[in-house]
Design brief:
By secondary structure, the protein is an alpha+beta fold. It has two domains: 1-310, Jelly Rolls, CATH 2.60.120; 322-432, no CATH class. The chain has helices at residues 44-47, 163-171, 173-177, 334-346, 367-382, 386-396, 416-422, 425-432, and strands spanning 5-11, 18-19, 27-39, 62-64, 72-82, 86-94, 119-121, 129-131, 141-151, 157-160, 200-202, 206-211, 218-219, 264-268, 274-282, 299-308, 317-319, 355-363, 398-403, 407-415. The strands form four sheets. Strands 1, 3, 4, 5, 12, 14, 15, 16, 17, 18, 19 and 20 form a twelve-stranded mixed beta sheet that branches.
Length: 434
C-alpha cells in the first residue's frame, strides 16, 4: 500500500505489544525526514494490563522512504523529553495463576479463564486491575520490592515518596503519567508502592525500545536475544522451536542508557520500509538495569532518519555521545595523534591507521553469550577474525552491560578504511565531528 511521504511525521498510535510485518503502518517519512512521537510508558503499565501481548506499548511501525531489506536505517536521536511527573517501579513478583507460559505475553483470567481479558480499574493498589468479565484480579504482576518516584518540574531529579505521596499519585495516576490519548495501558502508579522513601536520584532520559521491524512477529519486549529466550519452546502463539529461530530479531529492546539525545543508532532493515518503532522511555537507569525495570515514563522524542543502501547488518550499531564512550574508545585528539606519529616513526611503522568509535550491540541468553554475539557481528561487519575483534576491543574499547541478563555494547576504535568499505564512514564522521 502506498502512503504519502512526509518530511515530518507525528506518530500517535501504538501497538498492543507486538512488532512484526503485519502491524498497521503509522505513516511514511522521507529518507532524511523527521519523526516525532509521544509514547506511553512501557514495561510496568503494559505488564499489568492483561489485554497486552507483550511487555511494552510502542508506536506502530513507521515506513521510511527508500528502505529495503539489506539496507541500514540511521536514526539520529535529536531530543528525548519526559512528560510524566512521576512513576512507580521496582522488582517484580509474578502471579502464576494469571498467565500460561510467560507472564509478559500469555495472559488469562485466573477465575473465568478468558485469554487476554478486557479489564477495568477498581480503586488503587495491586488488586485494582480487574477482569471485565468476572471481576477477578487479572494482572500477572505485583511488586516484590516497589517504590514511587516524583520528578521536579525540569525533570532533573526524582525523589522516592512515602505512603501519603504514593496514595496521592495513585488517585491521579493517568494525569501524573501523562498517558497519550490512544494509550491502552493501566498506569502503574495505581499500585502505589512506597518502599525506599526519601532517595534522591539524578534523571537522564533515554529510549529503551527503538529499532526496526523484525521479519517475523515478536512480542515487543522480546525482540532481543535475552528476553527472546522465553519464546523458545513456549506453547503460545509466539513460541519458537529453537535458538536459530531468534535470528530474525532486530534487537530493538536494548535498554541502553546511552540511547539518549545526541546519540545515533544504526539499525538493520528486515522489511520493506524498515518499520521504525519507538517506545519504552525511561527517566533514568544505571548500567545493567539491575531490577530488570526502571523509571518508565511517557515522553516525546524527535528523530531524524536516513537510509544507508546495501549495508546488511546482523544487529544494531550505536554511536553514543562522545561523553558516554569509554575513555580509550573516544576519538583521538590532535595531541594524541602527534604523539602516536612520533612513536610510529621511531619504530618504523609505515602508517598510523586512522580510526573512529563504534559500538556493536550484542544480545543473548547471558552476558557472555551477548558478548560472543557482538564479536560475531563485529567480525562480519568489519571483515575481521574474532582474535582481531577481541584485540581491538581490548586495546581501544571494551564491553559495557546495557541490560542483564544479556544485552551489551561492544566498543572499539574501528579503522576508518573498514568503515569506508561498508559505507559507515560519513555517519561516524558526522556523529563525532571528525
Amino acid at each position: 500500500m502506498s502512503q504519502q511521504i512526509q518530511e515530518e511525521l507525528d506518530v500517535d498510535a501504538f501497538t498492543l505489544g507486538l512488532v512484526g510485518p503485519d502491524q498497521e503502518w503509522a505513516g511514511t517519512v522521507a529518507d532524511g525526514g523527521t519523526v516525532r512521537t509521544h509514547t506511553p510508558p512501557a514495561c510496568w503499565g503494559p505488564m499489568v494490563t492483561p489485554e497486552f501481548r507483550g511487555g511494552h506499548e510502542v508506536t506502530r511501525p513507521i515506513r521510511v522512504e527508500n528502505a529495503e531489506p539489506g539496507d541500514a536505517l540511521v536514526v539520529h536521536i535529536k531530543d528525548v523529553e519526559v512528560t510524566s511527573v512521576a512513576t512507580s517501579t521496582g522488582s517484580m513478583d509474578e502471579r502464576e495463576e494469571a498467565f500460561g507460559d510467560d507472564p509478559f505475553i500469555d495472559h488469562e483470567c485466573p477465575e473465568c479463564g478468558t485469554a487476554w481479558p478486557d479489564s477495568v480499574v477498581e480503586g488503587t493498589g495491586e488488586d485494582a486491575i480487574r477482569c471485565a468479565e468476572c471481576g477477578a484480579n487479572a494482572s500477572s504482576f505485583g511488586f516484590e520490592y516497589g517504590y514511587t518516584v516524583a520528578f521536579d518540574e525540569d525533570r532533573t531529579v526524582g525523589v522516592t515518596v512515602g505512603r501519603d505521596g504514593a496514595d496521592m499519585l495513585a488517585e491521579n495516576a493517568d494525569e501524573a503519567m501523562a498517558l497519550p490519548d490512544k494509550s491502552r495501558q493501566h498506569p502503574i502508579l495505581l499500585y502505589g508502592p512506597d518502599e525506599m522513601p526519601g532517595a534522591l536520584g539524578r534523571l537522564q532520559p533515554f529510549v529503551g525500545n527503538i529499532g526496526t521491524t523484525p521479519a517475523e512477529e515478536y512480542p515487543d519486549s522480546h525482540n532481543a536475544g535475552d528476553f527472546g529466550q522465553f519464546l523458545i519452546g513456549a506453547s503460545h502463539d509466539w513460541g519458537l522451536p529453537d535458538e536459530e529461530a531468534l535470528e530474525s530479531r532486530t534487537d530493538g529492546h536494548l535498554d541502553s542508557n546511552d540511547v539518549r539525545a545526541g546519540a545515533t543508532l544504526v539499525c538493520p532493515v528486515r522489511v520493506e520500509g524498515a518499520g521504525l518503532y519507538v517506545g519504552d522511555l525511561h527517566a533514568n537507569q544505571g548500567d545493567g538495569e539491575l531490577s530488570l525495570h526502571t523509571t518508565d515514563v511517557s515522553g516525546r522524542t524527535e528523530l531524524e532518519v536516513e537510509v544507508i543502501k546495501d549495508l546488511d547488518l546482523d544487529g544494531p550499531l550505536l554511536l553514543p555521545n562522545e561523553a558516554d564512550l569509554p575513555h580509550i574508545a573516544k576519538p583521538y585528539t590532535d595531541a594524541e595523534r602527534e604523539a602516536g606519529a612520533a612513536v610510529a616513526e621511531e619504530y618504523d611503522v609505515d602508517e598510523l591507521a586512522d580510526a573512529a568509535p563504534i559500538q556493536v550491540i550484542g544480545s543473548g541468553a547471558t552476558i557472555n553469550d551477548a558478548t560472543e554475539n557482538a564479536f560475531d557481528r563485529a567480525g562480519t561487519l568489519l571483515d575481521m577474525t574474532e582474535g582481531e575483534v577481541r584485540g581491538r576491543c581490548t586495546f581501544t574499547g571494551g564491553v559495557e552491560i546495557a541490560r542483564l541478563p544479556g544485552v551489551v555494547q561492544l566498543s572499539m576504535l574501528a579503522p576508518m578504511a573498514k568503515l569506508e568499505a561498508v559505507g559507515l564512514a560519513d555517519t561516524v564522521r558526522a556523529q563525532y565531528d571528525l
